[in-house]
Amino acid sequence: MVHDTMAFTESGTPLGLLNVQCWARDGIGSKHERHKKPIEEKESWKWVESYHAVSQVQKRCRNKSLLVVVADREADIHEVFAEQYNTPDGAQLLIRAERSRNRKVVVDDKESCEFCGLNWNSNRL
Question: Can you say how many angstroms the Cα of residue 64 is from the centroid of all Cα atoms in its chain?
């Protein structure tokens, strides 16, 4: 399998690949073992790796460009958000949520909504 991270301008002009990862899936039956594996051994780790690679490019841009990682629902995992949190000068994230949720955070005794998921009616989309 291949997971690539492609860069585009705001107008959609392709700039090139920022990251490429290749791997082969385990044999049949390994799906049932996935809950026992550490995140680094799961396919979803590719999103953390991709975010890290884009953030390294963002650091080299030194505020001349804003890089945004756009990802599908598979990237809606704690480890991706933790990577962004731990990389304050890294890329921004835009992830299609896997499920609706409301998460409140408290910073300096002030409560704010960090992520407010939307309950979409699939018939309206």
Answer: 22
- The total domain count for the chain is 1
CB 93 within 8 A of CB 76: no
Domain carrying residue 12: 2-26+39-98
Angle CA 112–86–25, to nearest 5: 110
- Do 122 and 100 meet the contact criterion of CB atoms below 8 Å apart? no
pLDDT tens for each residue of 105-118: 565 676 655 555 54
**Per-residue model confidence as pLDDT tens digits over 52-107:** 999 999 999 987 899 999 998 889 888 998 999 899 899 999 888 776 666 665 65
Q: HSE (CB half, 13 Å, CA atoms) of 47?
A: 24
